[in-house]
C-alpha cells in the first residue's frame, strides 16, 4: 500500500505535490497540538501557550514578559505558560516542591541552559538530585563565608572603592553633569566583590569604572540567548555539545565571557600549585572540601556571572524606586543620620548594625520585592505518579516553576497597594504578617536543597552599599562624606527587559556631594 501511495504521488505535478505535503503538515501540526494541549487542558492560562511556544517567543521578542507574568493572577495561582510547563505564585506550593523530602527534580529548561562551557558543569546545571546535593556539600561552606575570616572587611573594601570611583570620575557639581550608567556601575561593584571573595583579588572594574574583560556591554547577545532557551528544540540545538564547542566561549578569547574563562583558569591553576599556601577564600574552601580542578573551573564562572548579576539587579531595583520616591528617600536619610549621630553606625557600617535599622531593612526588602533578581522559572519536574496542586491533578513530567513577578504583587500578602513601592508596609504590620512577607519575598532565593548558596553574601552587600553610597557617615579615623543621587532622565529612567531575570541598560544617574 505504501508503495502504491508513493507511486501515485510521483505522478502528481509539482503544485499538486506541494498541496498534498502542505495538507499533511497541517494535519500533523493539528494532531500534535491536540496531544500537547490535552494533558494540562484543565489548567488555566493564555490559550496560545497551551499548545505552542509561540506565546513565550512572542512576549520575549516584544519585551512584554513583565506585564504578562505580573498579571497572571487573573488566571489563578497555578497558570499554564507553555505546552508542558506551569508557573505558580503560591508560596506554600513552592516550599513543598523545594522541600527536603520532595521527589521533584530539576527540569532541563533552565539548568541546562546555564552551562557556560560544553564540557564543564556547575551547581546550577546538575539535574540529578543526588549529584547536586553532593556538589553543594562541597561548596556550601565557602559560599556561606565560614572559611573566609575577612569576609565583611573584604566587602567593606569594595564599598570604599565604589565611593572612591564615584568621587574621582562621576561626581557632578553645579553646572557640571558627570552622569554614570548605574546599570554598569552596579555590576562593576558586585563583580569585584564576588571576585575578591572568590579568589582573593578583585578583577578591577572599580579601578577606573571600566568593563575590564568586555563582557558586560554585549547585552543583545544575552537577550537572544535567553530567548532561545525558552524554546526546547532551539535550546537543544544551541546547547548541542559539538556546536557549543565550536562557537561557544573559549579560554583563549581576548574579550567577553571567554576572557573570563581564561582569567579564572589562571587563578585556579595558582590555587592548585603543589607548594601554594592555603588560600582563605572561596576557591580555597571549595578545594579543601573536595572540589576538583575541572569542577572548580565550571563553578568559578557561575560564581562570577550568577553571583554578581542577581545582586546588581537588586541594587538597581532599590536605587530606582528610592530615586522616584522622595518621601522614602528622605526618611531613610533621616534614620541613618540619626544612627550616626547616636554612635550606632560605624564606618563602614557592619552587617549587624545595618540589621538594626528598621527603615533601611524595609527599603531593601521592598525594593527586592518590586524588582526581584529572578522573575520566573527554575522549573522542577512533577514525579512520575503526578501530584495534586490547588485541587488540580498535574501529570508526571510536567515542569512547574515560580512566578515571582505575580507572587510579589499578591494583594492578599502585600495589601491593595501591592503594585506601589511603600517600605512602610514592613513596619506597620503585625509580627505574624511580617513573617509571612519575609518568607514570601525570600522564596526568590529558593528553598530546601535548592536554596541559593550565596544568599548570606548578597544580603551583606545590599545592607552595606545602601548605607554607604548615599548618606554621610563617619569613623574614628576618617570623615567620609558621600553622596546624594538623582535620575538623569526621570521620564525614562532605565531600559528594562524581563527574561529569566531583568536586563537593564541606560540607567543614567547623577551623584553629588551629600548635603550636611
UniProtKB/TrEMBL annotation:
Its cofactor is heme. GO terms for molecular function: heme binding; iron ion binding; monooxygenase activity; oxidoreductase activity, acting on paired donors, with incorporation or reduction of molecular oxygen. The chain crosses the membrane at residues 12-31. Belongs to the cytochrome P450 family. This is Cytochrome P450. Keywords: Heme, Iron, Membrane, Metal-binding, Monooxygenase, Oxidoreductase, Transmembrane, Transmembrane helix. InterPro entries: Cyt_P450 (IPR001128), Cyt_P450_sf (IPR036396), Cytochrome_P450_monoxygenase (IPR050121). It comes from the Eukaryota.
